TrEMBL record:
Residues 502-541, 728-749, 763-793 are annotated as: Disordered. Signal peptide: none annotated. The keyword Nuclease does not apply. GO terms for molecular function: helicase activity. Keywords: ATP-binding, Helicase, Hydrolase, Nucleotide-binding. It comes from the Bacteria. Residues 734-747 have a biased composition (Pro residues). PROSITE patterns: WYL. The keyword Nucleotide-binding applies. Residues 566-688 form the Helicase XPB/Ssl2 N-terminal domain. This is Helicase-associated domain-containing protein.
Length: 867
């Protein structure tokens, strides 16, 4: 491209992209990854794709509030508009200095994302964005402005327009176009408009005040009142439909002192600190929560170890099963849904795939339990941070008005990982140990990603947004879930949580010696800089693994050393004053029931819990030795008696499969069972002095005899006692659910470089001028530029031109059809031609390639001035 062409103003978005350097193109593709999915063939296709409705909507939804306000102002500005006109619309007649300072960044952001193109004296909003943001009767502008005088008078009779000119004191014109221009010039003139409005009665001014900030439409009767007639006669209200009038844009801008928005928001709201704690207290509190989180997940998995709740036909947990899980964990149902979803997301539970499908622990659970506590926590926290499944929506309704169930479908919200990460990043920006005001966090998120729905369009004040929008709800859930998980402590981000998101070291709290803010030393200092977060690629798996490893390393010293003892008490309870060693906790969890949890866990010994330990293969002697070894207090006599009493009766009865049978060496015990009326439903009959047969299956027989008060043991076909183990049921290996991406993934530097190289090479092939040849028709293009069709030459001419180019070293423009039938045009420099193939340096692919000559549709020489 020549120097004159580069200096000329671009006539299209494609031309504007063509003069960008690689760094600028990379910034565009990084912020809008949908533009290279797939990679466009040239810059013209890239520009076309950047102007499609879906892509523009996606880009607008990712603008911060001030950048979106700037785009909205351009949509109601003249096309093209100068930077001065844009500044006047954003800052008003008073020229707000904060707006003036922030506007260059917003304009540069819009230009970087290809939503705006052109020099500062000719700024153009891409057509699709203007259509989305410009006012219309069906879709009011977010600015609250209406159509221009020219647009509102499009269907008005010329005579009526001349009457309006006469009413406002303007001379009549010969045509409607000049009349409309004169009226628009009057409304845009501040001095003359002030004089015109001064003539109106106060009732007319009240009507204008009601319409000035939108919506600009109103209703009138066929015989309007005098104060409305005064507005209609002067064109200050213009009819748009029978009974409907609109306030012209020029009039509204005068009444607004030139501002497109009632309250521009050039800087983001500050994230305020609600309280500040010592960092040591925050970290200790978070570590305690992390321990509780591990205990809760472990308890959940033990509940489901032998097969958990059944899977609903549509997938997920039933409401009843979620309630049972909440009772078992002693937490509210929404919190139970969070723990269930967290374990599922970490791959610790899944459906077993059996005919009667149930949820159960996976083999990954056994691997997870072998990890050190800090690493187990890091795996849970890393899963939570990146998961798109959102347990907060459990209990809500989907698009088909069906209840959303835990572990069920339709729980993925693609925005969840980004919102969680951003909330934690905002907490990381506070002084160390500071907990945020939740509403200030939500206000900041709304500024960074304002809504673009009907509520936002109807908003008349700054910061207006739905309280129940999804991003705000996810942010609230993030604050509570981070506390449950131990990422935060007392609301402040703990050191392991800071490492989890890869945040730098916490900033130093402000002191009295720091520079005072605008209001002096007594005012609150800003706790967050007034910049939008830079667009960065998401962390790679290696970076995420490094972050979780660092978080685990920081958390490990905060965990207390596990205890190897408990305190036995005479009321058949044991108190664990802290976390127990895994082996001790496992055995004690079988031997006793958890009565209460907290800083100290209380276990209670019952006949059922002791029998459970005996069923697991322990003997009475083993239990006595275990308690004596791990108790810091003497073993109470009632506990010794309880174990001996249950053990004396345990296993005297044996239940096996006949349908089922009971055998016992003591025939008196069998007599007692037969005489008991409660055993009638088991269908027992004596086969031998020491054997009873039953109609019930072995499991029902075991439960029935235990309900009566006996302690039978199950036995195998060989007569051996069957040991029931807690980990007897596992699902087949299952992969953890994959997060649902929020659009195309952000490209890495390697992909960006390759994509830019391919686009530039394709653009070279499509824009390089060529010499006209005998085969050129009307498709040859003007000025030697290639047309829309591929070059067409005969096989002999193609071969001769290729061989000549090998000798001269010249580049050629060719048409090529690949094996799939896809046609493309390329610029190549032939190196050799032999055996029906041409080997050439392909400028389009930026590499040496070999092409079959029979797939080349034609060839043309490049023009002598081709760059």
């Amino acid at each position: 491209m020549s120097t004159e062409e580069k200096s000329a103003a671009p006539r299209s978005l494609a031309e504007a992209l063509r003069v960008r350097d690689d760094v600028s193109l990379a910034a565009l593709l990084r912020s809008r990854p949908d533009l290279i999915t797939p990679v466009p063939t040239d810059l013209t296709q890239l520009a076309t794709r950047a102007g499609t409705r879906a892509s523009v909507v996606r880009a607008l939804e990712r603008l911060d509030r001030f950048a979106l306000q700037t785009a909205e102002a351009l949509a109601v500005a003249p096309d093209p508009a100068s930077y001065g006109e844009l500044l006047a619309l954003m800052g008003g007649d008073e020229q707000d200095p904060a707006v003036a300072a922030a506007l260059p960044r917003a304009a540069a952001l819009l230009r970087e994302q290809a939503l705006v193109w052109g020099a500062d004296d000719r700024l153009r909003l891409v057509r699709t964005a203007r259509e989305l943001l410009a006012p219309s009767p069906q879709h009011p502008s977010p600015t609250g402005l209406g159509p221009t005088v020219r647009e509102a008078t499009a269907g008005m009779s010329p005579g009526r327009i001349q009457d309006i000119l006469a009413a406002v004191g303007l001379p009549s014109t010969h045509d409607a176009v000049s009349a409309v221009s004169a009226l628009g010039g009057l409304f845009a003139d501040r001095r003359r408009m002030a004089a015109l409005l001064a003539e109106l009665p106060w009732e007319s001014r009240e009507v204008l005040d009601r319409l000035v900030w939108g919506p600009p439409y109103g209703q009138v009767t066929h015989d309007p009142a005098a104060h409305l007639r005064a507005l209609l006669d002067r064109g200050l209200l213009l009819p748009t439909a029978p009974g409907t009038v609109v306030l012209p844009r020029e009039v509204a801008l005068h009444l607004r002192a030139g501002r497109a928005h009632r309250a521009p928001e050039p800087v983001p709201p500050q994230v305020e600190a609600a309280a500040t704690h010592r960092p040591q207290v925050v970290d200790a509190t978070a570590a305690g929560q992390a321990l509780a989180a591990l205990a809760t997940v472990d308890e959940l998995l033990k509940e489901w170890d032998e097969g958990g709740p059944t899977v609903l036909r549509a997938g997920g947990l039933s409401v009843r099963d979620l309630k049972r899980t909440a009772v078992a964990l002693d937490v509210p149902e929404p919190v139970a849904a969070f723990w269930v979803e967290l374990a599922y997301g970490a791959g610790l539970i899944a459906s077993d795939g059996e005919a009667e499908e149930r949820y159960a622990a996976t083999p990954a659970y056994d691997e997870w339990r072998e990890l050190p506590p800090a690493e187990r926590w890091a795996r849970l926290a890393g899963t939570w941070l990146t998961a798109t499944r959102t347990p907060g929506v459990v209990g809500g309704r989907d698009a088909k008005d069906r209840t959303l169930s835990a572990l069920g479908p339709n729980l993925d919200r693609s925005a969840a990982p980004e919102v969680r990460h951003r909330v934690l990043a905002l907490l990381a920006g506070l002084p160390e140990g500071a907990s945020p005001v939740a509403e200030s966090v939500l206000a900041r998120l709304r500024w960074e990603r304002p809504l673009r729905g009907p509520q936002q369009q109807r908003a008349t004040g700054a910061g207006a947004a739905r309280e129940d929008d999804l991003r705000s709800r996810i942010a609230r859930w993030t604050l509570s879930e981070a506390e449950l998980l131990g990422v935060t402590g007392r609301g402040a981000l703990a050191a392991p949580g800071r490492a989890l998101i890869g945040a730098p070291e916490a900033p130093r709290p402000a002191t009295a010696n720091d520079t005072a803010g605008p209001g002096g030393p007594g005012d609150k200092l800003p706790v967050h800089h007034h910049r939008t977060p830079p667009v960065t690629a998401p962390p790679t798996p290696a970076e995420r693994a490094a972050a979780t490893a660092t978080a685990a390393r920081l958390l490990a010293p905060l965990f207390p050393e596990p205890l190897d003892h408990v305190l036995l008490q005479a009321d058949l309870t044991a108190v664990a004053p802290g976390p127990l060693e895994r082996g001790l906790a496992d055995v004690l969890g079988v031997l006793a029931d958890v009565e209460s949890k907290g800083g100290a866990t209380v276990y209670r010994f019952t006949p059922g819990s002791v029998r459970r330990a005996l069923d697991a293969g322990q003997s009475a002697a083993d239990l006595h030795a275990f308690l004596a070894r791990h108790s810091r207090t003497p073993v109470p006599q009632p506990l010794t008696y309880l174990i001996d009493d249950v053990a004396r009766r345990h296993g005297r009865l044996r239940v096996g499969a006949a349908s089922a049978y009971v055998r016992c060496d003591d025939d008196a015990t069998l007599d007692e069972i037969l005489a008991d009326k409660r055993a009638a439903g088991l269908g027992l009959r004596r086969l031998a002095p020491t054997v009873l047969a039953a109609q019930a299956d072995p499991a029902a027989l075991l439960d029935g005899l235990r309900a009566i008060g006996f302690a039978p043991a199950a036995e195998s076909a060989a007569g051996d006692v069957l040991i029931a183990r807690a980990d007897s049921h596992r699902t087949p290996p299952r992969a953890a659910p994959e997060p649902v991406p929020d659009g195309p993934p952000a490209p890495d530097d390697t992909l960006l470089a390759a994509a830019i190289r391919a686009v530039r090479a394709g653009d070279l092939a499509s824009t390089t001028p060529r010499k006209p040849g005998p085969g050129d028709g009307e498709g040859g293009g003007e000025g030697g530029m290639p047309g829309g069709s591929l070059p067409r030459t005969g096989a002999a001419e193609t071969l001769a031109t290729m061989q000549a180019a090998v000798l001269t070293g010249e580049a050629l423009w060719i048409g090529y059809v690949n094996a799939e039938g896809a046609a493309s045009q390329r610029v190549i420099a032939p190196i050799r031609v032999e055996g029906g193939f041409v080997t050439a340096y392909d400028h389009t692919a930026d590499e040496v390639r070999t092409y079959p000559l029979h797939r080349v549709t034609g060839v043309a020489e490049l023009a002598d001035d081709a760059g």
